Structures are given as C-alpha cells and as structure tokens.
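We give the entry.
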Amino acid sequence: MNSGKARKTRKIRIGKVVIGGNSPIAVQSMAATQTQNLEATARQIEVLEAAHADIIRIAVDSEKDVEALRILRKQFPESVWSVDLQENYRLAPIVAPWVDKIRYNPGHLYHLEKDKTICEKVQFIVNAAMDNDCAIRIGVNCGSVDPDYKERYKDDLVESMVRSAVDHCQMLDQMGFENYCVSLKDSESQKVVDANRRFAKERPDVPLHLGVTEAGLPPEGIIKTRIAFEQLISAGIGDTIRVSLTLPNDDKGQEIEVGREILKDISEGRFRSVPENFLEGLNIIACPSCSRVENDKFVDLAQDVRKMTEYAAKYKLTIAVMGCRVNGPGETDDADLGLWCGPTRVNLKKGIEELGSFSYEEILGQLKKEIDQMIQDKFPQTVS
C-alpha cells in the first residue's frame, strides 16, 4: 500500500499478524458485548470476522471474563485477539494464554496497588507477555492520563500523553521487551495528530496504533477519524488503526469497512476536504460502546441526544455521552455537558460539576434544560 511517506517503525508480531515497517496497516475493532455473555460475544466476533478484522479487541475485568475468553477461544482458534486489561492488571498472567496482545493504560496503573511502583506493575505485565508470546500495547488516553504527568505538564495535555508513552517505552526497553506498540488517543482529531507526530519524532522505531477515541456517531465520527488518519498516515505515521464509532452491536463491522475505505483513499491519493465550519458548532462526543457498557440503551441514548440537540447545532458546545463508569467520569470533564451511563441511571455533569443522576427516561428532558440555560448564559446575544 502506497500511503505516502514510508514508515520507519520496527516490525512486531501480534499472533499471525505483523505490523510495522512495510507491513500492511492492520485494521481492528473491539467487541462491544459483555464478555461473559458467550452467545452475544461469539456473535460479535463473527460480525467482526465477517468484516475481515485483522485484530479483535476484547475487554476483561474479572476472572469470570477470563474464563469466558478461554471458552470462546475454543470456538475461534484462529482469531487474533487483543485484550484490554482495564483496571485489573493482575489478570495479565491468566488471560495471556488465550490472547495475542495485552493492552494496558498507564493512567490506570497509577491508581492501583499504591504500595508498588509503576515499574513493578509494568514488569508484572511484561512477564506475562513474555511467558505467553504476547505483544503489548501501551495505550495512553486523554481522559485517563497518569495524574503525575498531568500535573507536570498541566499547560500541555498533549505533552503529558507523549511523555507518559515515551517513559513507558523506556521501561519496556530496559526490561528487554521489544514486541510492543503505542497508542495516543483523544476525542479531538488535531490532538491525535499532534500527539502522534510528537511521539513519532522522538521514537520513530515504535509502531503506532491510531484512533480518535469516542469519535461518536456516523457521519461526524467518520469525518473526525478521517481528518486524523489522512494527516498521519500520509506522513508515514501509523501501523494499525481503529475507527471508534457509536453503533449497534450488529453493525460494528462498519468500523472495519470505514477503516479500509479510508486507507484505500489515502493510498490512492484521495484526500477528502473538510468543510470550513465543521465542528465549529455543536460537537457531540460518544464512545464506541464496549463490554464495559452496563445498559445497551446507551447507543440509543447517544442517537437520541443527537436528534434532540439539532435545534442547538449552531452553538459551540460540546456534549459527551459515555457508556460506562470506567471512562465516563474522567472523559466527560472537558465537555460543557457530560453524560455517563450506569445500569439504570445516567449521570449528568457540567464540566467537572456533578448535576445528579437520572433515569434513562428522564435524562433527555434534564439535558435539554441544561443546554437551554447554557445557551442563555454563553450566547445571550443569540437568544431573542
């Protein structure tokens, strides 16, 4: 694939898939179901395999999730799987035998087992990967950056992400582990571009996993992702991609289809222009749904929020709709209004201020009240 500048990264192996160097850019997605729901998760894997996903990511957060993964592996022995450790890095040794790559978040490690150093926790994960021939992804996310780095680089969040990633790469290097890649994700396309450019300049050898996190619903989510991918891949940056869209489970294959379409366009020199006023008005951020979502109504809610807020399209406001309690609280902090969903209630925030918890039936009405008040407060000249 001729996608512009040649990539300089080293090759790493994720099961039977090789990324980096002159290898094809791998396209991946993530199962959005509860991992312990064997029937639903098997169906999700089938949907992604039918779309020709190179790598499928699955989340685990308990030993029951690991047991489910073990059972599913018998059904899908040839699938290439990445596992997301979430907030339970201690699962690494028991999940590693069933997967090809382990993803950990440096920001999550900060909060766990404070009596251990970050280096000790990373070594624990590296040992599990080495013993089971797994790759590792160091996954740095804008909404969960290690607080030490956020404080150190409080005037430049992008730099805090890059420094965290670079330092973790040095840890793995010192441990003699080379089969790793890095991701630096944000919900803003330009921050994704900036972070990955900075990192690639400092560590051109390390393969990069690209993605715009919580890109949201199509078509806006596709456009945000395309903006980042076109700028980075054409510059020789990026070895595997994830398109994160808020979609019903049976439509998750669209993430793979969209990813391949973007790659094909870039390789053939078709760069799509973005309207000058794109995202100048209302910006709705929504996560792509995953096994952490505790109520499937989340996807419907995201779609309902977009529909309900059409009347406010011209106002420069950001509304974040997040599906779980793991990423929801932190990744709504930068939004004007944020919603994060639990099993039966939706938590509403105004910036970092918590406004309360509402039922799925109540939340749209409450959100509209807050939007109307915010429009009055921030844009009084436009309100008659």
Notes: The mean pLDDT is 91. The longest strand covers residues 135-141. The two ends are 55 Å apart (CA to CA). The longest helix spans residues 157-174.
